[in-house]
Give the backbone structure.
Amino acid sequence: MKKAYKISVAITSILIALITIVACSSTKEVYTPVPDTEVASSEEEFKIEKSGAQLWGEVCNRCHIAPSPADYNDTDWETISLHMRVRANLTEKESKKIEEFLKSAN
Amino acid sequence: MKKLILTLFVFAFGYQVYGQTYNTFEPSKTQFMLRGYGHTGFEYMDTGDEEESTFLGAAFAPIFLYKHSDRLMFEAELEFVLEGNELEVGLEYADVMYVLNKNMTVRAGKFLLPFGTFMERLHPAWINRLPTRPLGFGHDGIAPSSGIGVELRGAFDLGGPKLNYSVYSTNGPRLKDGSEEPEEAGILKFQNYEDNNLAKAYGGRIGVLPFSDSSAELGFSAYSTSGTGKEDSQYEDVGAFLFALDFSYVKPISPLKGIVDIKAQYNNSNVDTATFIEVHEDGDAEEYSFDNQSNSFYAQISYRPTMAGSDFMKKLEFVGRYSDFNAPEGAEWEETSVQYAFGLNYWLSWRSVVKFSYQTTETEGGHDGDGITNTDGLFLHWAIGF
C-alpha cells in the first residue's frame, strides 16, 4: 500500500504541475498575425461552432433534463452558470454559451 | 433667504428622495441564490420474515449560492432528513471556489469528491432516476462522497473532444478499529471532519469526452492515503488505495424516438491488512485479520420517448439498474449483494419527477447475519429540484 500511495502522490504532483503549466500558458492566444479579411474568410469556411442552444441540449442532459430558460432571470442564470461550470467541470466556452442562450431565451 | 434654503434642501436631499421613490432594480454585483431539492414518498419492504411499509417524511436539501464576482463563489448544501423518528441534519458541502483561469478553478472547504460521477453529479433525488442509490454508495458504502480539503479542477476543449480533471487533498478517511462497533472493524469512514492523524488523502479524476456532441464520457478516479488510523495507535500506518471507473452515454436516438441514458461505475477499495480483536460472548478475546478488499459496480439504463407523438408518453421514463457489492471475506461485515431495480418515472417538469420502482436485493452475510436474505421493495417517490 505504501508503494501505491507513493505512486499516487507522485502522479498527483506531476498532474498538478502539468495542468498548472498548461492551464496558465493557455490563457493567452498564441497566433501569427494575419490580415482581418483572411481570418474572416477562413473562419467562415472552416469554423462551424456550436450554438448555445445546441450545447444546452447536449451538455445539461448529461446529468439532468435541460432546464427551461424561463425559470430564472438573467442574474440567476449567471449564478447558476458559474456553479454548474465548476460542479460539472464544464469548459469556459460551454458555460458561457449556454448562459448566453438561457439569458436570451428567458 | 427662504428661497435659498429651499434650493439647498432640494439639492441636498432630492437625489435620495428620488432614489428611494424610483428604485431602478438594477442587479447588484453580488448575488445570492437559494436552490436545492426535496423529496417524499411511500415505501414497502418485504424481507421474507418481515414486512414494512411507511410514508417517508420529506427530505429537504437547501443549496446556498453566493456569487461574489464572476470568479469567486461560495456554495453550501444542508440536508434535513427525518429518519428513525429523529430529524437528522447534515452538511453535504460548504466550500469557496475561485476561477483562476479558463482551465483551472480552486476549491477549498468541504466539497463533493469526484470519485466517479454518482455522488458528485447524480445523487440528488431529482437527478437520480431511481428512488434508491446503487449498492456501494451511501451508509457503509465504499465510495467516498465528500471530503475536507483543497481541490484544483477544470476542463480543456480539445477542438471537439473534451478533457476534464480534478486533483485534491483532503483529511482522508478514518479506519473503524472495532473499539466502538466491533462488527464494523476495518470499514473506512469518510466523515473525517478533524483529521485523526498527519496523513492526508490525495486523489483525483480524469474524464474524457471523446465525441464533439459530449454524448459519452469515460472517467478514472483514484484516492490514496498512507494512514487511516488514529495517531499513535497500531492502525496509524494502515493505508488505503481506492479507484473508480465511470462511464456515461446520453444521446437522442431518432429510430428509438427518444433519449437513451446509460451510466455505470465500478469502485474498488483496498485497505492494508490489519489485526482486529473479536470479543466472544464468554469474554474471550481473539485476534483476527482479513484481506480488506471491497468492490461495487452499477450499470443503469434509462429511456425517455421525447420524440413520441403523445404528450403523455414524452413525459415517461423507463429505468433499469443492476448493482452489486462485495465486502471482504473474513470481515465481520463480509457481504455479497446483488440488486436489480426497475422503474417508471413521470416527469411533471424538467426538475420534478414522480418515480415508481420495484427493487429486489439478494444479500449473503452483512450486518444482519450469515445466511442469504432476499429483500423486495416497492417505492413511490416524488422529487423536486428548485
The longest strand of chain B covers residues 51-67.
